[in-house]
Design goal:
This protein is of the alpha+beta class and about 70 residues long. It has helices at about 45-60, 60-70, and strands at about 5-10, 15-20, 25-35, 35-45. It has a four-stranded antiparallel beta sheet, covered by helices on one side. It is globular and about 30 Å long.
């Protein structure tokens, strides 16, 4: 389909997702949460945000993840 989806973290067992951006463009970042904690982030055309999410996941920076994936 010509669209690359980047994923960081684990997509196992999430119970909520938060979409930031426009899925029609596509220009989107999706946070996958379990019990309120972000477990993974998927992105389309947001390479910098994806790298920021990777660092935030590695350092358990939930506030940084929330800032990236706010609705």
């Amino acid at each position: 389909y010509g669209i690359r989806i980047n994923v960081v973290g684990s997509l196992d067992g999430w119970d909520e997702n938060v979409v930031s951006g426009d899925t029609e463009k596509p220009d989107v970042l999706v946070g996958y949460r379990k019990e309120g904690t972000t477990m993974a982030v998927a992105s389309i055309n947001r390479d910098r945000d994806n790298l920021r999410a990777e660092v935030a996941l590695e350092t358990s920076d939930e506030q940084g993840l929330n800032n990236l994936t706010r609705e």
